[in-house]
Amino acid sequence: MAEDNPDDVLLTRRAFAKNGFGNRIVAVSDGEECLEQLLPAHGGPGLAPALVLLDINLPKISGLEVLGRLRADARTWLLPVIVLTTSRERRDILNCYLGGANSFVCKPVSFADFVPMVGTLASYWLTVNEPCPDPGTL
């Protein structure tokens, strides 16, 4: 999870837990740290999460630039990236999809609305969706 607001990280962790998902959530607070975790400079493999929750308004390196770099690198080009943000700007939505986002989700304002949204999101991406196989294993 790439999110600069610690309260949103805490709420997301709580929402995952309330929905029965015990998945480990690795949280980073800026785009630079996100890229360091997923695309280490040494060229080797980074973290291999089931999905990335990406805010577009990140410090240091924007979420859109992070998305572009993830899609440009063979280590992460197939990694599911869900943009989870407060923005409802049509331009942001379009730019995220053009950049290769798998989904764009607007964060609800209230925790009461956030919990079921996270439950739906986690249920789909972690249990219903069939992850893409590694092309090197075919």
Automatic annotation (TrEMBL):
UniProt-listed Gene3D superfamilies: 3.40.50.2300
Chain positions with 4-aspartylphosphate modification: D55
Keyword field: Phosphoprotein
InterPro entries (alphabetical): CheY-like_superfamily, Sig_transdc_resp-reg_receiver, TCS_response_regulator
SUPFAM superfamilies (alphabetical): CheY-like
Coiled-coil positions: none
Pfam families: Response_reg
Top-level taxon in the UniProt lineage: Bacteria
Annotated Response regulatory domain residues: 1-122
One Gene Ontology term from the biological process aspect of the record: phosphorelay signal transduction system
Protein name per the record: Response regulator
Originating organism: Actinospica durhamensis
Organism classification: Bacteria, Bacillati, Actinomycetota, Actinomycetes, Catenulisporales
